[in-house]
Design a protein that fits this description.
Elements lengths: L2 E7 L2 E7 L5 H13 L11 E7 L2 E8 L2 E6 L1
Parallel strand pairs: 2-5
Antiparallel strand pairs: 1-2, 3-4, 4-5
Length: 73
């Protein structure tokens, strides 16, 4: 079941949309990586895809504003 979860990271709130479970440590690491890539600077309506690897797991992530759609590959 796909869930939309409000998630606070570094003082900002994001909407995490994910079908699978992801550990909080992995989610924080993924969010840090996305921030360092400038993923949230484009703004809403400018969806972008990113690929992030954390502890051997590959995540494909769509960013649209503060919505973060995560797929585990």
């Amino acid at each position: 079941m796909i869930e939309k979860i409000p998630f606070m990271h570094r003082g900002k709130t994001y909407n995490i949309i994910i079908e699978d479970d992801i550990p909080f440590t992995a989610l924080h690491s993924v969010m840090d990586d996305l921030i360092s890539q400038g993923a949230f600077s484009a703004g809403e309506g400018c969806a972008e895809l990113y690929k992030v690897t954390h502890e051997g797991m590959c995540y494909i992530i769509g960013i649209d504003g503060n919505d973060v759609i995560i797929s585990v590959k």
